[in-house]
Amino acid sequence: MKFFIDTANLAQIKEAQDLGVLDGVTTNPSLMAKEGISGEENVINHYKAICEIVDGDVSAEVISTDYENMIKEGEILAALNPKIVVKVPMIKDGVKAIKYFSQKGIKTNCTLVFSAGQALLAAKAGATYVSPFIGRLDDISVDGLSLIEEIRLIYDNYGFTTQILAASVRHSAHVLGCAKIGADVMTGPLSAIVSLLKHPLTDSGLAQFLADHAKAAEKQG
Ligand code: E4P
């Protein structure tokens, strides 16, 4: 399973890249706003900066919601760097835009997916990635991981090549759940990746090894 980081924060992207396990980045308009990035030029420069840090796909979301403008925006974004994936919302014009981009060989990420029907439609339109938001489903007491299971089953039934990008991942249990089901990618905050490191027996075991080593060195000296 590929690990993407869901942020527009350059320091966090660099930290994840330096860890050696990062496969890509996803952003969205809220994440860009959180970093104070606005205005066409700043937005474009920020995507370019992300592409310089990461080895892998970088999702950049269109703001337009009508077909013509989604196409215009998406073509500008895709021309920035071959790593750019045009992120398009799951709305009627978005589905049409995904079909257009897929015919042009432009990578797409169909975002704001909350049902298996939406995921089926995204795959039919030729999306490179589909992003079901598992954390936001959990927030309304709907099991987000069950949606990943449903989509996996449907895509495998028909051999769809659209990659399941489990989004809105919040913690390490989500990451593991996605890996067990067979999601192709997960995207979440740096904390969800780093928390996979943690086990109390690792910490106590390491402390014991180092203490034993120090004692042995003391005896010898
Ligand atoms: C997906 O690409 C979105 O950027 C993201 O995962 C949304 O996550 P959130 O529900 O934590 O905002």
From TrEMBL:
<keyword id="KW-0570">Pentose shunt</keyword>
<keyword id="KW-0963">Cytoplasm</keyword>
<comment type="function">
    <text>Transaldolase is important for the balance of metabolites in the pentose-phosphate pathway.</text>
</comment>
<dbReference type="InterPro" id="IPR018225">
    <property type="entry name" value="Transaldolase_AS"/>
</dbReference>
<keyword id="KW-0808">Transferase</keyword>
<dbReference type="InterPro" id="IPR001585">
    <property type="entry name" value="TAL/FSA"/>
</dbReference>
<dbReference type="Pfam" id="PF00923">
    <property type="entry name" value="TAL_FSA"/>
</dbReference>
<comment type="pathway">
    <text>Carbohydrate degradation; pentose phosphate pathway; D-glyceraldehyde 3-phosphate and beta-D-fructose 6-phosphate from D-ribose 5-phosphate and D-xylulose 5-phosphate (non-oxidative stage): step 2/3.</text>
</comment>
<dbReference type="InterPro" id="IPR033919">
    <property type="entry name" value="TSA/FSA_arc/bac"/>
</dbReference>
<keyword id="KW-0704">Schiff base</keyword>
<dbReference type="InterPro" id="IPR022999">
    <property type="entry name" value="Transaldolase_3B"/>
</dbReference>
<feature type="active site" description="Schiff-base intermediate with substrate">
    <location>
        <position position="87"/>
    </location>
</feature>
<comment type="similarity">
    <text>Belongs to the transaldolase family. Type 3B subfamily.</text>
</comment>
<dbReference type="InterPro" id="IPR013785">
    <property type="entry name" value="Aldolase_TIM"/>
</dbReference>
<dbReference type="InterPro" id="IPR004731">
    <property type="entry name" value="Transaldolase_3B/F6P_aldolase"/>
</dbReference>
<protein>
    <recommendedName>
        <fullName>Probable transaldolase</fullName>
        <ecNumber>2.2.1.2</ecNumber>
    </recommendedName>
</protein>
